[in-house]
Write a structure and sequence with these properties.
One of its GO terms (molecular function) is lipase activity. The protein has about 60 residues and is of the alpha+beta class. The protein has one domain. Helix content is about 25%, strand content about 15%. It has 2 helices and 2 strands, in the order E-H-H-E. It has a two-stranded parallel sheet with strand order 1-2.
């Protein structure tokens, strides 16, 4: 995957994507696969900002 400045990786999904996200933290990634991918992207592209975001919808 090649990323350039200003590009993002966006995850949309269900409770698996939501993964325990803190509802008070808009930029929180929780502890699921989006957080893991964010770590990989951060290691591969340390100079980029706002790299990974997500929106999951857990069932109630």
């Amino acid at each position: 995957m090649l990323l350039k400045e200003g590009q993002r990786v966006l995850f949309l999904g269900d409770s698996v994507t939501d993964a325990g996200r803190d509802r008070e933290d808009f930029f929180g990634l929780g502890n699921g696969y989006p957080a893991i991918i964010s770590g990989f992207v951060g290691a591969a592209y340390p100079g980029l900002k706002n790299r990974v975001s997500k929106q999951g919808c857990r069932r109630r």
